[in-house]
Amino acid sequence: MAMTMPAFLLPHTVTVKPYAGTGAYGPSFGRPFTIRRAYVEDRRRLVRASDGAETISETTVVVRPGPAIPAGSEVTVWPGTPAARSATVITSSTFDHPSAPAHLEITLT
At residue 70, what are phi and psi to the nearest 5 degrees? Predict the structure, then answer.
């Protein structure tokens, strides 16, 4: 059984609008949901997107495994604060190994 990320390491809250595809009027999103246990780090780094292109990520979010958060989803960090902002998911990577806490790492624009 995989370990879960301890709650004290996940002090932040994020809101996610999962990407559902592209429609006639642009991207469409599923019902928004809130993740109450997350770690948000505003740090610029170079990442490779799912299409292979190198792009700059401004924020990394770590959450416990749960609902899928596909590339293209919209994530609001710091909701309810003056610093709140929304960004698009570049990559979403799962880490699951018996020797370490399972988590999902999400990189944002």
Answer: -75, 160
Exposure string over 1-28, b if 16+ CB within 10 A, otherwise e = eeeebeeeebebbbbbbbbeeeeeeeee
Length in residues, the chain: 109
Q: Which CATH class is domain 3-108?
A: mainly beta
Task: Give dist(CA 60, CA 109) in Å, integer.
Answer: 9
pTM over 0.85: yes
CA distance 63 to 66: 8
pLDDT in tens, 19-67: 999 989 999 999 999 999 999 999 999 999 888 899 999 999 999 999 8
| C-alpha closest to that of 39 among 77, 84, 79 | 77
The residue assigned the tokens 């609008």 is 17
How far is 49 from 25, CA to CA, in rounded Å? 24
